Amino acid sequence: MTMTFDRVSVTRGGRDVLRDITLTLSERRIGVIGDNGSGKSTFLRLFNGLQKPDTGTVRFGETTNDLRRHVGFVFQNPDNQIVYPMVEEDLAFGLKARKLSKAETETRIAETLDTLSISHLRSRLTHELSGGEKQLVALAGVLVTQPELIVFDEPTTLLDLRNKMRFMQVLVDLAQPAVVVSHDLDLLMGFERILYIDDGQIAADGAPETVIPAYRAARL
Amino acid sequence: MLTDLYIPGDSPLHRARPAWKLIGLFLFCTLVFVLSTPVVLALAFVVMALGYIRAGLSASHAFAAVRPALFVLAIIFAAQLWLDDLATATYVTLRFVVLLAAAGLVTYTTSASQFTEGLLSLLSRAPSWVPREKIALALSLVWRFIPMIRGQFEEVREAQRARGLDRNMVALLIPLIVRILKTADEVAEAIDARSLDDNPDA
Asked: What is the DSSP secondary structure assignment for residue A104, as one 8-state letter?
């Protein structure tokens, strides 16, 4: 499935946060890099409609509506994404709007937890989980809705090395295409395509082997 | 802590429909207040204690449900002692203890999602302008975020303690309120991201 940005601009408080972005994205793993305040997070929020473009259009396949039905969003801080006090309740929350039967909801929750090898967390209280476990539960809360594309906003920032390695493996194994905003350049090295956003524009676009060294060189 | 109160189990109280538990709690509290006699209070105590035993819970669980309110109970006791006498003060305070323990029993045996279901069920006959789903979600968020806000308070207090400002209410409250408001924004955005409607306000 292809995500298309056609002359997209976003303005906030009279400042151009994103300017005239035109892109077609169809790779399975896409990384987004750039300085703080460069427009990366705003760019990511366009994917599932959290941010509306002031001009231009964002399309998933052929549709410009219901982006949220197709695109899941994993936030930087899982504490702010997990809504219910118990893991299985939180996963069920994402399915409420989809009006599934109770049996189907149960099956989806079990399958999703199994996919991430966290079935043992099913009845745990979410505030008692470790940072790594919370991040996986937050991802499970998105995966359970079976999105066709998942976007991640700096998913490893709050993780220690062990949990970061585990999360990287989860990312490799993920069936869906993924777009990941990150300052962690190691995480993005195996990706197919990297977008470097600078001052609201795409400053570089290509393979990690070319874009990441260019970004490093520009900033060091 | 509120979210620590739910204790998974398979007792009849755990299995009972949440709406019935809420109605039962409401009736229990009303009766204890309306039939204001020591005999009724003693009976209420016995019913509450039997409930704890049937749910497989101990006296320490009941105490844990009452403990957060001990300070308020002490004020109520002192006020009644000043206004009336020792017997009245003891009776009024014990009545609140029984009610708190009864509410704790419902919380111990009802998970947040069951509680929400129960509330939705009770609101099913409410007029259409009552935002049932939003009320239920708000309640779930209270359940979820009390421990988180407590954690944030501890972090702020630690940070201010390092600066020698842990007794300064302004230094404690302002960073905490800023963090809570920021968290509220991010949580609202996360809920939007997990819903189906791209225009939730529409």
From this structure: H
| Residue of chain A whose alpha carbon sits nearest to that of B1 | A127
ipTM: 0.75
Contact partners, residue B177, CB within 8 Å, separation at least 6: none
| Residue given tokens 């994404």 in the structure block | A81
By the 8 A CB rule, do A59 and A99 touch?
Answer: no
Taking 50 as the pLDDT cut, the residues of chain B under it are 1-3, 200-202
What would the pLDDT profile of A140-171 be if each residue is shown by its tens digit?
Answer: 999 999 999 999 999 988 888 888 888 888 89
Work out the minimum CA distance from B192 to partner chain A, whole angstroms.
7
Judge whether B25 and B16 are in contact, CB under 8 Å.
no
Q: Which amino acid is at A179?
A: V
Contacting residues for A128 by C-beta, under 8 A, at least 6 apart:
none
Helix locations, B55-168, DSSP H: 59-66, 70-83, 86-108, 112-122, 132-162
Three-state secondary-structure class, residue A72? strand
Cα distance between residue A48 and residue B192, in whole Å:
10
pLDDT, tens only, A81-131: 888 888 998 899 888 878 888 899 999 999 999 999 999 999 888 888 988
Residue B69: CB atoms within 10 A of its CB come to 14
Whether B143 sits inside 8 A of A84 (CB atoms) is: yes
Helices (H), chain A: 40-47, 67-70, 87-96, 102-115, 131-143, 161-173, 185-188, 208-219
Q: Between A75, A98, A145, which is nearest B190 by CB?
A: A75
d(CA A139, CA A82): 10
